[in-house]
Amino acid sequence: MLDIYFDDETATIDTEVEEMIRKLLNHAAQEEALSGELEVSVTFMTDEAIQQVNAEYRGKDVPTDVISFALEEMTEGEVAIVVEEGMPTVLGDIIISVETTSRQAEEYGHDFNREIGFLALHGFLHLLGYDHMTEEDETVMFKRQKDILATFGLER
Question: How many domains does the chain have?
Answer without folding.
Answer: 1
